[in-house]
Design a protein that fits this description.
Blueprint: E1 4-5, H1 11-20, E2 23-31, E3 34-41, E4 44-50, H2 58-68, E5 77-80, E6 86-92
Antiparallel strand pairs: 1-2, 2-3, 3-4, 4-6, 5-6
């Protein structure tokens, strides 16, 4: 699995996130067919995984956490939609 930085292809999304939320940093990654949106603010970190074609696998969630979360002892909250096409990871600072 490889995370590919595709932030430049999502300039409108990044601009919208920075202007309408308290986010101070936004990155967009591709993990195959899964999009990964990483947002950071003064109060926390949010990572959203989204795949319209299939359910998001547990291995993908673990991989993203391992690659994007620097402190491995951090506790986080997972929110999963019913179809498991969207998974959100929230980390308080």
């Amino acid at each position: 699995m490889h995370l590919i930085d595709v932030t430049n292809s999502y300039a409108d999304l990044v601009h919208s996130q920075l202007n309408t939320t308290n986010a101070t940093y936004v990155k967009v990654y591709s993990l195959g067919n899964t999009s990964v949106i990483y947002t950071e603010s003064n109060t926390g970190i949010g990572i959203a995984l989204e795949n319209h074609d299939r359910r998001i696998r547990e291995e993908e969630v673990e991989f993203v956490i391992k690659r994007l979360v620097k402190d491995t002892d951090t506790t986080y909250t997972l929110t999963v939609d019913k179809s498991r096409h969207v998974v959100e990871i929230h980390i308080d600072k």
